[in-house]
Amino acid sequence: MRSRLRTEAIKRGTSNVFADIGLPDAAERQTKLRLAMAINRLIEERKLKQGDAARQLGINQPKVSALANYRLDGFSVERLMTFLTALDCDVEIRLKRRGRARRPARVTVMAA
Fold first, then answer.
1. How far apart are CA 50 and CA 6, in angstroms?
2. 91 phi-psi bin (left φ>0, alpha ψ -120 to 50, beta other)
3. What is the largest CA-CA distance in the chain?
4. Potential cystine with 66: which of 8, 58, 71, 111 (Cβ 3.0-4.6 Å)?
């Protein structure tokens, strides 16, 4: 018996999956995700247990667990940047004019 294959058009996504699925706060979600990825990478590299990370970040362990599992609704971009400074990282914000060819203006996070 031969199965039928559905043929669907494949659409190339952007660099922001949240925008691709139509979320209204896509840029903020992408920024928070990238900051959380940097925080989680630092915690992992330093082999910190969640309790130790919580003490260093000034939060409780369940919040570290939420951060580790990328449940980020309870965290602002500013708070995530504060966590990075608590982990001895400098956070640099660079402003530049938006290029004419690109629409709209955007926020990007690049972790070193």
1. 45
2. beta
3. 62
4. 71
What CATH number is given for 24-86 in this structure?
A: 1.10.260.40
- Cβ–Cβ < 8 Å for 84, 91: yes
104-112: long-range pairs with CB below 8 Å, 24+:
106/27, 107/27, 107/28, 107/30, 107/31, 108/31, 108/34, 109/30, 109/31, 109/34, 109/35, 109/38, 110/34, 111/34, 111/37, 111/38, 111/41
Separation of alpha carbons 21 and 92, rounded Å:
29
Total H helices, total E strands in the chain: 5, 0
